[in-house]
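Researcher: We plan to redesign the surface later, but first we want a full-length starting point. Tokens attached.
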């Protein structure tokens, strides 16, 4: 076998070729890591947004979209007393009446953006215990509370959504009363106002849903039975976790597009790398023949050429990983119903390493075989 140092020295014989290989590999690794981080982040935020303890009562036929749902406001009181197993604290049941509403809001500076709003009562804090108010307080009439990532979702400076700032919704001025956090969920991209304000602004006399929090997720059957028995209320019961799982499947084509894009770019870089190696190895046919003549087997020469390519691609993978940590890690990406944060964790880093290894191994084999294919006498006479 040729010593490993031989492959290392040959890496720097052509610095231009080395830079092309490292740069192409780094770009592909960066894109693959971005695709993995986007898919993982979107899937994680949607799966974390739904609690198996929460049951959503929506209008029958509106199971796919809470925003289109219409439920009588009286259903909250009826469900709160009829459904067993609802969580209770200090004698108050965890039953939240909510309106989910999407509309354009006017921000300072004449900026108009589409926002996801939720009309709630203080009982919403019992149903969504992961929510914490980090600044200010819960909204009163004429006020709104914003999620800590709402500024990312709206694409405005964070300073414009601080407590005391103003929003305008259909001519109604709303003062920001506070900021809340609900780590890892789509709630952090929403704007919450009082149920009464959103009811008036959305011009509706019904609510979107009634959310119940159960002590035991297995009591869902009781809530489902209630919805089926009370035909007059025209309700359908959903686990909150199931609802967001459906949303995750709805966004599956978008996630697939990121994979397709990354795969197409990777294929282009792979073929470009193969062409570069064809040109580089073609000039080394006599060198390889000379090594064969002094006793090295074609297998050992093939292994050495693959080592060169793999080392260059792994250098690119290292560069791509560093770029991903610098420019992608912690970056918040908005999408239609919320925002999620990219996390360059061990699984994403492993995907980058495997991509670099794959590029190095696969990209070197065809040109290396062609370089070693000519018979020894003909190879020794080649120029």
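Model: Full-length starting sequence:
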């Amino acid at each position: 076998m040729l010593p490993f140092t031989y492959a290392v020295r040959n890496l720097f014989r052509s610095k231009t070729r080395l830079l092309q290989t490292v740069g192409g590999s780094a770009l592909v690794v960066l894109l693959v890591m971005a695709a993995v981080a986007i898919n993982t982040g979107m899937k994680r935020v949607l799966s974390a947004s739904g609690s198996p303890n929460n049951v959503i009562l929506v209008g029958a036929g509106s199971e796919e979209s809470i925003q289109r749902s219409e439920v009588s406001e009286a259903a909250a009181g009826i469900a709160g007393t009829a459904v067993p197993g609802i969580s209770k604290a200090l004698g108050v049941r965890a039953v939240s009446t909510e309106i989910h509403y999407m509309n354009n809001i006017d921000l300072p500076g004449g900026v108009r953006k589409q926002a996801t709003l939720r009309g709630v009562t203080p009982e919403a804090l019992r149903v969504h215990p992961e929510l914490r108010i980090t600044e200010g307080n819960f909204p009163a009439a004429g006020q709104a509370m914003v999620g800590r990532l709402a500024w990312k979702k709206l694409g405005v400076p964070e300073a414009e959504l601080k407590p005391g700032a103003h929003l305008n919704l259909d001519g109604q001025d709303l003062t920001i009363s506070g900021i809340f956090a609900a780590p890892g969920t789509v709630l952090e991209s929403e704007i919450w106002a009082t149920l009464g304000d959103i009811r008036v602004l959305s011009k509706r006399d019904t609510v979107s849903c009634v959310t119940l929090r159960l002590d035991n997720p297995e009591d869902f059957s009781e809530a489902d039975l209630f919805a089926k028995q009370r035909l007059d209320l025209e309700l359908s019961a959903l686990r909150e976790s199931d609802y967001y799982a459906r949303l995750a499947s709805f966004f599956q084509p978008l996630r697939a597009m990121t994979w397709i894009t990354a795969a197409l770019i990777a294929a282009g870089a792979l073929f470009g790398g193969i062409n570069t190696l064809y040109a580089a190895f073609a000039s080394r046919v006599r060198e390889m023949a000379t090594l064969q003549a002094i006793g090295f087997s074609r297998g050992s020469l093939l292994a050495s050429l693959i080592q060169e390519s793999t080392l260059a691609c792994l250098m690119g993978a290292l560069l791509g990983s560093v770029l991903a940590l610098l420019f992608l890690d912690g970056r918040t990406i908005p999408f239609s119903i919320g925002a999620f944060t990219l996390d360059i964790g061990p699984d994403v880093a492993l995907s980058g390493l495997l991509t670099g290894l794959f590029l190095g191994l696969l990209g070197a084999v065809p040109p290396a075989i062609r370089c070693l294919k000519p018979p020894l006498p003909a190879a020794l006479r080649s120029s």
